[in-house]
Amino acid sequence: MLIKINYIYVVISKILNDMKKSIFSALCLVLLATTTQSAWGETITLDYNSFGLTTSYAKKTATVNGYGFTVDRGYKGSGNVIQMNSSKGSGTLYNTTPISGLQSITIVVSSGSKTYTVYQGTTEQPTTSKKGTGSTGTTTINFDPGQTYFTLKVSGASYFSSITITYSDKTTYNVEPKTTNGGSIDVD
Questions:
Q1: Which of 10, 45, 81, 168 could make an S-S bridge to 110, C-beta 3.0–4.6 Å?
Q2: Phi, psi of 89, rounded to the nearest 5 degrees
Q3: Which residues are CB-neighbours of 147 under 8 A, at least 6 positions away?
């Protein structure tokens, strides 16, 4: 009888130990799945300081997080905002280096209600694939997958407190779990 109880104890212990490993593995995978997106998400925020704007309209460039941007005829507007005017030049703000995993652009209008348009593309300064428009308040426009460039184009004078670009770092990691017991992850 003692041998049977000992055998049952060993079997139950083995089963529970395997279950602990499986539960631990499952929890690790859930944790990885829930944190991966936010860990790889990045933002770039542009404001008048990014371009070194002054009170004279000028074509200015900026580099933020290693990405290049140009504003054509930007101006430091009242209240330290990016002022753009289509009558002073092309009235555009665009990226000059491709942004892998481009997701969205959030535009905060400081004042006024002139319409602006956001374009997307795979070459610098796109102006044919219209993605969205806005005129007041805060607007977020989502880009289609695979796009790497955008252009913000104003109609008339527009005043922006900030422009935030969200993108996903496309760094991927090839992780292959060690399996020794029929497919579950061995955590020894």
A1: 81
A2: 170, -155
A3: 102, 120, 121, 122
Tokens of residue 184, six digits:
């579950």
In one letter, which amino acid is 118? V
Spatial separation of the C-alpha atoms in residues 91 and 71, rounded to whole Å? 8
Report pLDDT digits (tens) over 125-175. Answer: 999 999 999 999 999 999 999 999 999 999 989 999 999 999 996 554 445
Note the helical H segments in the chain: 2-40, 48-51
β partners of residue 162 = 108
* pLDDT at 21 > cutoff 60: no
Structure tokens at 140: 């977020």
pTM value is 0.69
CA neighbor of 67 nearest in space, from 83, 44, 49: 44
| Of 157, 103, 163, the residue nearest 139 (C-alpha) | 163
Largest CA distance in the chain: 96
Q: Which residue has the tokens 């996903």?
A: 168
Q: Say how far apart CA 145 and CA 101 lie, in whole Å.
A: 7
Strands (E), 66-184: 67-77, 81-85, 92-95, 102-111, 116-121, 129-134, 138-142, 149-154, 157-168
